[in-house]
Amino acid sequence: MSSTSFRNIALVGAGSIGTYILRALIATKQVNAIVITRTAAAKSLPPDLSSVPIIEADYTDVPALTALLKSRNIEIVVSTLSATAPGLKAQYPLADAAKASGTVKLFVPSEWGLASEGAKHRGEDNAFGIKDGFAEHLKTIGLPYTRFYTGFFTEYLQWIVGLETNNSVNVLGEGKTPFSVTSEQDIGGFVAHVLTALPSDSPHLQNKSLRMEGERVTMRDLARIYNQPLVLIPEGNEVPAKTAGEAEFKTSLQIEADGGRASTGWDRLTKTERGDAGAANKLWEGHVWKTVEDISGAN
In this structure, are 29 and 132 located in the same domain? Predict the structure, then answer.
């Protein structure tokens, strides 16, 4: 596949995963990128990305956002806004501005994790429901989108199992349910590849959910890979953590994993495994995806 044009891409938010995506986009040498943030002064990019313009914007000001996107002739908007309030809901005016700009052909909503498709129809009152509801908004306003499902970030697996608290892999349930993991570097590389190798109106992108998977593992696999004891957490207890908030979040993630919902092939509407976890990997021909062992050995 070859790029059909030089792309003008706006990255909204530049946290951890946003930085990986931005670095990969710049590495393609086929992108003019800008970063849009709420407070430009409070956000600095790593030295290797210091040439990328950071533009401060009010996410609620649709006319100003529209003018910004139009003036930069932005073709693709990639959102990496946080799942914590008000991040995800701030995407609504961004989408309205992208549609009004007349230049934006594709919107990438902030997913970057477990599959959310079907959550709104199931009545889920959580981040998955908010993400799925936003995708419906994109459909309603007629703005094409691409959703990227990644599974857990490989780099955070040790934290999810509480390894830093007791040098053990702490697991809810039996730890035998397989789930999807993908490294942040591979996520950034995959996103950059498909957004530059494919035209923005490609049927592989428009209104599609791309289900990537760097590796498929179980919690028991992690105990073996990390060479640490497996500790099965008694029912009703939380995953050990340094703070109550962290314990609650880790526990919620492991509940998803134990229920099979951390596979990128999970369908939240039917509550079944679709069997297509990692199906999108074929769009990055020849790429060797990083494993948990690769990341563990590098740390």
Answer: yes
pLDDT digits (tens, 9 = 90+) for 95-135: 999 999 999 999 999 999 999 999 988 888 889 999 999 99
14 closest CA partner among 26, 2, 28: 26
**Which pLDDT does position 208 carry in this prediction?**
98
Helix (H, G, I), strand (E, B) or coil at 51: coil
CA distance 238 to 165: 13
Helix (H, G, I), strand (E, B) or coil at 223: helix
pLDDT of residue 4: 47
Amino acid letter, residue 44: S
Lookup: tokens for 256:
């998803």
Range of the domain at 84: 7-150+183-211
Residue 2 pLDDT: 42
Give the whole-angstrom CA distance, residue 191 versus residue 184.
11
178: preceding bond cis by omega (within 30 degrees): no
Instruction: Report the 10 Å Cβ neighbour count for 69.
Output: 26
Q: What is the pLDDT of residues 12-63, one digit of tens each?
A: 988 889 999 999 999 999 999 999 998 755 567 899 999 999 999 999 999 9
d(CA 157, CA 219): 9
Going by C-alpha positions, the residue among 47, 133, 35, 46 that lies closest to residue 89 is 133
Q: What is the pLDDT of residue 15?
A: 86
- For 143, the 3-state DSSP assignment is coil
Number of H helices, E strands in the chain: 10, 14
Whether residues 174 and 193 share a domain: the answer is: no
Tell me the C-alpha distance between 238 and 230, whole Å. 15
Is residue 86 a part of any domain in this protein? yes
Q: Is residue 269 part of a domain?
A: no
Pairing of strands 146-149, 208-211: parallel
